[in-house]
Amino acid sequence: MNIWLGLLAAPTAVLATQSIDYALIRLACASGAQWPMHAVSAAAFAFCAFSAWLAYGRWCAERSLGAPAYAPLIARPGFFALMAMIVGALSALIQLAMWFPQWLLPACR
C-alpha cells in the first residue's frame, strides 16, 4: 500500500489541490481570508512528503533483504519502491512550487 501512495495518490493529490485552490479563490476574494487555500496546500504537501517517506522506508527494507537480485521478478518490488519514492518527492516539490505564489500574490489579483 505504501508504494501505491507514492505512485498514484501523491500526483492525484497535487492535481486535486490545484482544482480545490481554484475553487476557493472566490471565497478568498469575498471574505479576504486566504487560510483555506493555505490549509489545503499544506495538507497536500504533507501528504506527498509522507507518501515519499513511506516509499523510502519500503525501499530501504527491500534493499536490505540480501544480495542484489538481477532476476526481473525479484528486483521488481525494490524498483517500484524506488519509483514511488521519486514520484512522491517530485509531487511534494511540485506542490511546494504551486504553493509558493500563494504566499506572495494576493488571491484577488
Helix content: over 70%
Evaluate the radius of gyration: 18 Å
Query: Would you list the SSEs in sequence order as H and E?
Result: HHH
Kindly name the structural category: mainly alpha
| Uncertain spans | none
Distance between the termini: 41 Å
Strand residues, percent: under 5%
Average pLDDT: 86
User: What's the main sheet like?
Assistant: none
Number of domains: 1
Q: Which shape, going by the Cα principal axes?
A: elongated
In DSSP terms, counting alpha (H) and pi (I) runs of 4 or more, how many helices? 3
The counted number of beta strands is 0
Keywords: Membrane, Transmembrane, Transmembrane helix
Summarize the structure.
With 109 residues, this protein is mainly alpha-helical. It has helices at 2-31, 35-63, 72-104. The model has no long low-confidence stretch (mean pLDDT 86).
Task: Write a concise keyword list for the protein shown above.
84% helix; 109 residues; single chain; mainly alpha; elongated
Structural notes for this entry:
The chain is mainly α and 109 residues long. The chain has one domain. The chain contains three helices and no strands. α1 packs antiparallel against α2 and α2 packs antiparallel against α3. The N and C termini lie far apart (41 Å). The model has no long low-confidence stretch (mean pLDDT 86).
In terms of topology, how is this protein built?
Elements (H helix, E strand, L loop, with lengths): L1 H30 L3 H29 L8 H33 L5
